[in-house]
Write a structure and sequence with these properties.
The two termini are 35 Å apart. The chain contains ten helices and eleven strands. The relative contact order is 0.12. The strands form two sheets. A seven-stranded mixed beta sheet has the order 3-2-1-4-7-10-11, sandwiched between helices. Strands 8-5-6-9 form a four-stranded mixed beta sheet, with helices on both faces.
Length: 327
């Protein structure tokens, strides 16, 4: 049996990372909980059993959903699963639990389906750039996004990707995870320190690398089409705008926060200063922002399960296709 508390701890400590993996682990843990739930005949009535199941599911869902504050993919799907459970009027507990398990499985299936669709959208983008430039694409990426990894590997297999440059992503070095995954897939990869990234993108670097495309993931999508991603994304977007390089975010619209109208409203998680500097010193404060935000005006497009979208189209597309969540 999966331990809910352990999964929540692993999410919080970034042992489980990337929004997609966090959502899969969270929903999988909730599904496992339902399979181990024991019907107690001492509850007296089916309504008593139902109340206990609902309460335990709710407690577990909240633990998982808010293990980290900036995980709307997991939060939106867990909220959807719980909303369906609350509406379920089945009096038979076996039927209620089966319906709950069906909702969990449907959410997991939706994540997998969207992964394939986002990858397909990304491949189409690479093919268009390849056809326009008449040569494989040179890409820069940041942090570690499972959506970006799948797109880059697929583009490489299609012959539309020549090489990837990426940043190490301090203080936890998620860029190393990305670099390992790409190199394992046979993709030539050059990693650099975070502070070198804007210089390389600017086209002022001595090696004249000339990046064709920047692609990042996203942890949160604002209803205005802005994105929250790993700290350092904002400086890349600014430099890309200045250098005239297309800047894309690969993400599911299930990461959209309907309560956020603008990137200015997105709260930024602050992590333990000891991740940056284990020692403490008098009069020295360490500011460890986990994320920053990229305003919609710096984003060329979002690579989604509904194709390549302009930021202005995020709201209507999310509302149209995910009515249960964005009603």
């Amino acid at each position: 049996m999966v331990n809910i508390d352990k999964v929540a701890r692993d999410i919080k400590s970034i042992k489980i990372q990337s929004a997609t993996n966090i959502a899969k682990a969270s929903i999988g843990a909730l599904l496992d909980f339902s399979k181990s739930f024991k019907v107690n005949k001492n509850f007296g009535t089916p309504y008593g059993e139902s109340f206990v199941f609902l309460r335990e599911a709710e407690i577990n869902a909240n633990k998982l959903a808010w293990a980290r504050p900036d995980e709307p993919l997991s939060q939106n799907l867990l909220n959807l699963i719980m909303a369906r459970l609350e509406k379920d009027r089945s009096k038979d507990m076996k039927e209620k639990v089966a319906n709950f398990q069906k909702s969990c499985q449907e959410a997991l299936d939706l994540i997998s389906k969207n992964e394939r669709l986002i990858t397909a959208s990304g491949i189409n983008l690479f093919k268009k750039i390849y056809q326009k430039k008449k040569k494989p694409v040179l890409v820069f990426t940041h942090c570690n996004s499972s959506s970006v990894v799948r797109i880059l590997i697929s583009a490489h297999k299609a012959g539309a990707l020549i090489k990837v440059y990426n940043s190490e992503t301090r203080p936890l070095y998620q860029g190393r995870i990305m670099a390992k995954a790409l190199s394992k897939a046979g993709i030539k990869t050059t990693m650099m320190i975070d502070d070198a990234a804007p210089f390389v993108i600017s086209k002022n670097d001595p090696d004249k690398i000339n990046i064709d495309l920047i692609i990042i993931g996203a942890d949160v999508v604002g209803i205005d089409g802005s994105v929250l991603n790993k700290i350092g994304s904002y400086s890349l977007a600014l430099t890309a705008k200045e250098a005239g390089i297309p800047f894309y975010s690969a993400t599911s619209l299930l990461k959209t926060r309907k309560d956020i109208d603008s990137y200015r409203e997105i709260k930024i998680e602050r992590r333990d200063p000891k991740e940056v500097w284990a020692e403490s010193h008098k009069n020295v404060e360490v500011l460890n922002y986990a994320f920053d935000t990229v305003p919609s005006e710096y984003i060329s497009g979002l690579i989604t399960e509904f194709g390549i979208l302009k930021p202005k189209d995020v709201k209507k597309t999310a509302v149209k296709n995910y009515k249960e969540i964005f009603k």
